Every structure is written in structure tokens, then in C-alpha cells.
Amino acid sequence: MGQADAVMAEARGFTKSRVILTAAELDLFTRLDESASAAEELAEVQGLDLRALTRLLDCLVTLNLLKKDKGVYSPTESGSFYSSRHPETVLPMVLHLNRLWRTWSDLTDLVRTGGHHQRESGLQMGDEDWKSFVAAMHVVGRELSLTIAADYDLSRFRRLLDVGGASGTYTVAFLRKNPSMTAVIFDFENVLAMARESMAEEGLQDRVELVTGDFYHDELPTGCDLALLSAIIHQNSPEENLSLYEKVFRALEPGGTLLIRDHIMEESRTRPPAGAMFALNMLVNTRGGDTYTFREVEEQLHRAGFTEVKQVRRGMEMDCLVEGRKPG
């Protein structure tokens, strides 16, 4: 393959993504995981056009996501991860990516105009999209949360405040690592319903308090010596982050620590590459979200009153950690 062909292959990458997203949106992998089927049967059951469905299924075979044997389709080992039946299913994250397909289509206009200036703060989604988003974040976080909990010294803390903690993926990992720790998860009521279910499944309901609120408008629960902002600051403008840091500062016990998990960019803003791409994701999905350098985070934490600000973990994905301390 020549250089021009390789460059064109990058530009055509969206076609492969669209095939997978459509198959996931139609839940074809789950259906075929339940029972291998011919295209005719699947089209009838799912109410789909036979010719169009057959072309889609055949394309999935070429991508090594489906097998085709005498006209009968079934998932490959790789394709089975897109089925809701798989114990490590990635389907919720793929459905979230399907929603992002629509928002990323606005990128050209947003580069011209500068962003969604009229939007409200934070991520704006309906109830079904929220469920998909929270489930997707659990898929992304289930392994990374264990890594973060193992790498970071949690033995110093007795009570965690998980701000915007969603289904509690990081709360679970932190409480498993530190059996003497308790926690508060602060989030919207519709999100806390998922956290309540998750805590019950993990047997942690007696160690976790669920508090309803909106960190853009409400004060945060008090009485904690560790506050976690996990994948939060990128959805905010600098002004919104300063306000949030000030709320965390007020809520923390004296001597308490704020821990931030997010993309932390180098000063060039081109590394980590995933952070540069994610900055565009925030451009198309939020009013003022972005990815931030350590200096930008440090400066605002100092303005909010925190001291001893340092980056305690570096990474290539959204796995960097920054901490600041509230003076005792």
C-alpha cells in the first residue's frame, strides 16, 4: 500500500465504524448470539429489509465480526463482545458512540462558529441516553478503576465523596481496596437509581450514602476527607471548574484531599494524542468543555485554596491523576 492509499484508508475509516454502529443499534450481535440465523429469518423477526440486511451482515463477515456458514450467520469471538449476553460486553459503549456519531457531524460548523454557546452546563441527554452513557462509562471504567485504586494510596482516607459518581464504578473499586472506607455518591436522581442497584449487587449498600444533587447548582455533601472528580473536569469550562473546585474545598474536611482523574495534557496540547482528540469531543458535545494541562489545573486549584498540588499519575488515556490538599 502506497502512502496515498494509506492516507485514504484513514479517511475511509468512518465506513467501518458506521457498519459496526448500525449493527449494534439494531442489536444484531445479541440476536445472533442467542441463535445463529439466516438473513431471511433475521429480517422477518427484526422487521428489516432483506437485501439491505444481507449486505450489512456480509460486510460484518469481512470485518471478522460474524461467521457465515451455508447462509447462517453467527458472531465470531471478537463479534461476541458486541452482544449484551457477553460478560464483558462493550455494547453500552458502542451505543454511546452511536450517539456521538450525530454530535460529531457538527464539527465543521463548530470550527466555524466556536462552539455551543447557548447550551446549558454539562452533558445534555434524555433519560435513555443517560442510561446508555452511564453504562458506557462503566464499561470504560471497570478495569481502569481497579488499576487506579491499586496505584493510589487509599489507606490514608476514611470517607470518599464521589462527585458525579454515576453508577459508582470508582466507589466500588476504592471501597474494595480500602475495607474501612465509606463513601458518598453525589449525582442526579435518575443516575443514582443505577448506583443504588450497583451497590446492592456489590454488597456495599451499608457503606455508601447516595445524595441527590447537581454540582453546577448545589453545594456538596460535607464530612469527607477524600473527594474524587473522575472524568468530570473535561466537560466543564475553566470558570465552571473553578466554581466546582471551590465547592469541593468548602465540603472537604480540613486536611482533606481532592483527587482528579482525567486527561492531563502536556504544554504542547498535542500529547497525549487521545486527549487532543477528546478536546474535540468536548467541543461538539458541551458548551465549554475541554482537556487541560497540569499548569491550568494547578493554577485553578490554587485559586480555590488547595495546596501541595501535584500530578501523581501520568498516562496516555484518561488515566492521569492530580491531587490537591486542603490545609488542615
Tally of distinct domains: 2
Gyration radius over CA: 22 Å
CATH class of the largest domain: Alpha Beta
Oligomeric state of this protein: single chain
Backbone structural class: alpha/beta
Which range does the strand content fall in?
A: 15-25%
Number of strands: 12
Contiguous uncertain segments of 5+ residues: none
Largest sheet: 7 strands, mixed
- Please identify, by name, the CATH architecture of the largest domain: 3-Layer(aba) Sandwich
Mean pLDDT: 93
Q: Distance between termini?
A: 62 Å
User: What is the CATH superfamily label of the largest domain?
Assistant: Vaccinia Virus protein VP39
Biggest sheet strand line-up: 6-5-4-7-8-12-11
State the helicity in percent bands: 40-55%
Q: What global shape is seen? A: globular
Q: What is the H/E string? A: HHHEHHEEHHHEHEHEEHEEHEHEE
CATH topology of the largest domain: Rossmann fold
Description:
With 328 residues, the protein is of the alpha/beta class. The chain has 2 domains: 3-87, Winged helix-like DNA-binding domain superfamily/Winged helix DNA-binding domain (Arc Repressor Mutant, subunit A); 120-325, Rossmann fold (3-Layer(aba) Sandwich). The protein is 48% helix and 19% strand. A 7-stranded mixed β-sheet has the order 6-5-4-7-8-12-11, with helices on both faces. The protein has a 3-stranded antiparallel β-sheet with strand order 1-3-2. Helix 6 (91-104) packs across helix 8 and helix 11 crosses helix 13.
